[in-house]
From TrEMBL:
InterPro entries: KR_dom (IPR057326), NAD(P)-bd_dom_sf (IPR036291), SDR_fam (IPR002347). The lineage of its organism: Bacteria, Bacillati, Actinomycetota, Actinomycetes, Streptosporangiales. The keyword Oxidoreductase applies. Keywords: Oxidoreductase. This is SDR family oxidoreductase. Signal peptide: none annotated.
């Protein structure tokens, strides 16, 4: 990875920090995004110490579209190339929360943020090609359903339903992006990291998570193991031209039947573009 620049969202903790650490030790120049400056600087110091290379720090609350736009501007100013974008940030909330933009938080952070950030950085990725977009989904996508009549759980909200939908949205986005980028050398793949012992869902956990997580922790993957598929997709030489795939345990895997619905993917893309205020779909082909 020497000479390559990798941008990781959510690089302060969990799978994202382990992904950044893994890629830094392979020689990549890292740029990490966190929402708290102190935590992000702290993670960057740790990653620098492990990898020995440059680690840039960007701070933004990705649930806010104005912050994503400001962040993208700063990234484009600082990074002359982006070889890999790892869309890693994601969360689970048991109860319904609303972002600064008035959007349901799971949909906004897990799906709209990577959609908008990737769109705003796409020209830089294309200029840096061969380049890769890696999006962290989850096997929860298999239980997901895109409810176009109630995308943001206004009529009825369940944390699990919102999360599953957002993770299916990650896969639909990944596949649609791959189709739109067919004429370029930018690939787009999604993955399931495994069940990983992190702070995932800790802000607003459900009763089941509160009760069972402590007992399940010893059986979960460590963050470095959970990051392995992200690291593989970001770096494996054999994957340079592999696009439009879903991976788990470092291997390709079929995602849910719904995730291959191209009409649903195109519709979701359009709805998302409207919700983030992108007038035209982001495509370079
Ligand atoms: N853990 C699992 O078992 C599991 C399973 C399947 C899929 N996944 C997926 O893996 C990804 C990473 O999850 P994780 O387990 O590593 O979660 P985590 O431990 O909660 O880490 C989440 C990361 O995202 C950052 N973040 C959260 N909200 C943010 C916001 N509004 N703006 C900017 N950054 C924000 C956090 O920063 P702070 O330091 O500020 O909190 C942290 O760096 C997610 O997409 C999740 O859906 C996880």
């Amino acid at each position: 990875m020497a000479g390559r620049t990798v941008l990781v969202t959510g690089g302060t903790a969990g799978i994202g920090r382990a992904t950044a650490l893994g890629l830094a030790t392979m020689g990549a120049r890292l740029a990490i995004i966190g929402r708290d400056r102190g935590r992000t600087e702290g993670a960057a110091r740790e990653i620098r110490a492990a990898g020995g290379g440059q680690v840039d720090v960007f701070v933004a609350d990705l649930s806010s579209q104005s912050q994503v736009r400001r962040l993208a501007g700063e990234v484009l100013q600082s990074l002359s190339r982006i070889d890999v974008l790892v869309n890693n940030v994601g969360g689970y909330w048991n109860t319904r929360h609303v972002t600064a933009d008035g959007l349901e938080r799971t949909f906004a952070l897990n799906h709209l943020a990577p959609f908008l950030l990737t769109s705003l950085l796409l020209d830089r990725l294309t200029q840096s090609a061969p380049a890769r977009v890696v999006t962290v989904s989850s096997n929860a996508q298999a239980m997901g359903h895109i409810d176009f009549d109630d995308l943001q759980g206004e009529r009825s909200y369940s944390g699990a339903r919102a999360y599953n939908q957002s993770k299916l949205a990650n896969v639909l986005f990944t596949y649609e992006l791959a189709r739109r980028l067919q004429a370029t050398s930018v690939t787009s793949n999604a993955l399931h990291p495994g069940v990983v012992s992190t702070s995932f869902g800790a802000e607003d956990p459900g009763r089941v998570q509160r009760l069972f997580a402590p007992f399940m922790r010893p059986f979960m993957k460590a963050p470095a193991q959970g990051a392995a598929t992200s690291v593989h997709l970001a770096s494996a030489p054999g994957l340079e031209q592999v696009t439009g795939g879903y991976f788990a345990n470092g291997k390709p895997k079929r995602s849910s039947k719904c995730s291959y619905d191209e009409a649903a993917a195109a519709r979701l893309w359009q709805v998302s573009a409207d919700l983030v205020g992108l007038t035209a779909p982001a495509t370079t082909s």
